[in-house]
Amino acid sequence: MGEFRCRRLRILSREETFVDISFTIRRSLALVGESGSGKSLTLKALLGMLPKGFSAEMACESDFPIRRGETVAYVPQNPFTALSPLTKIEDQWIVAEDAAPEMMEQVGLERELLKRFPPELSGGQLQRVVIAMALASRPKLLLLDEPTTALDAHLRGVVVELLLKLQAEMGFRMLFVTHDIATAAKLCSEITVIRKGKVMECGATDAVLQRPQSDYTKALIAANFANREFRR
């Protein structure tokens, strides 16, 4: 599968540095931290979608060209706001429209749902639709912005199992941005913990969670990430 290595990612605004980190995605990496730690900015920098006034200095290496919508795909946080409620699902595919029926089946949905409007589907179904849309271009890297936050515990488990299944079938790497350590532990083989734009700890997920080295990581694990976001 190779790896995606970011030797340095620096995000600035008016000469102030908000993020200065490095990370490597070998298979699946969870980027974990409290609100305001720089998780979302990191994701937006990789997508070329930083807010006005921000800029990024990136030194990234991979075995594929980084092109949003082609080799890099994105799954947003909330499936309820990711799609237009007034447009049929089949008309909202931006890329690889001809792959829609096949991708719907690949994520466990009936093709007939393409004829429906988003409000006619459940939250779990909508999240699978969004995942199907992201994977239609057969990307090399899938960026996930807390895609299970709006789902209950059962549906979070369903989505995690689906992503693991699809990764095994399609061979893409994953960067999972989250504050939910419990879900990250199920989905990702490695984890990087960040605070205020700096890496606090990184390594194999099991090793970091079982033997955390920094006090900050210990506090994150002690907090109930399954139910609420840690804030300090």
Structure characterization notes:
This protein is α/β, with parallel strands linked by helices and 232 residues long. The protein is 31% helix and 26% strand. The protein has helices at residues 39-47, 79-82, 100-106, 123-135, 153-170, 181-187, 205-210, 215-222, and strands at residues 4-13, 16-25, 28-32, 55-61, 72-75, 141-145, 173-178, 190-195, 198-204. α3 packs across α4.
What does this entry show, briefly?
This protein has eight helices and nine strands. The protein has helices at residues 39-47, 79-82, 100-106, 123-135, 153-170, 181-187, 205-210, 215-222; strands spanning 4-13, 16-25, 28-32, 55-61, 72-75, 141-145, 173-178, 190-195, 198-204. The strands form two sheets. The protein has a six-stranded mixed sheet with strand order 5-6-7-3-8-9, with helices on both faces. A three-stranded antiparallel sheet has the order 2-1-4, covered by helices on one side.
Describe the secondary-structure layout.
Blueprint: E1 4-13, E2 16-25, E3 28-32, H1 39-47, E4 55-61, E5 72-75, H2 79-82, H3 100-106, H4 123-135, E6 141-145, H5 153-170, E7 173-178, H6 181-187, E8 190-195, E9 198-204, H7 205-210, H8 215-222
Parallel strand pairs: 3-7, 3-8, 5-6, 6-7
Antiparallel strand pairs: 1-2, 1-4, 8-9
Helix pairs in contact: 3-4
Key terms:
single chain; 232 residues; alpha/beta; Rossmann fold; three-stranded antiparallel sheet; 8 helices; 9 strands; globular; disordered C terminus
> H/E series, N to C?
EEEHEEHHHEHEHEEHH
How can the largest sheet be summarized?
Answer: 6 strands, mixed
Mean pLDDT: 89
Task: Compute the separation of the termini in Å.
Answer: 38 Å
CATH architecture verdict: 3-Layer(aba) Sandwich
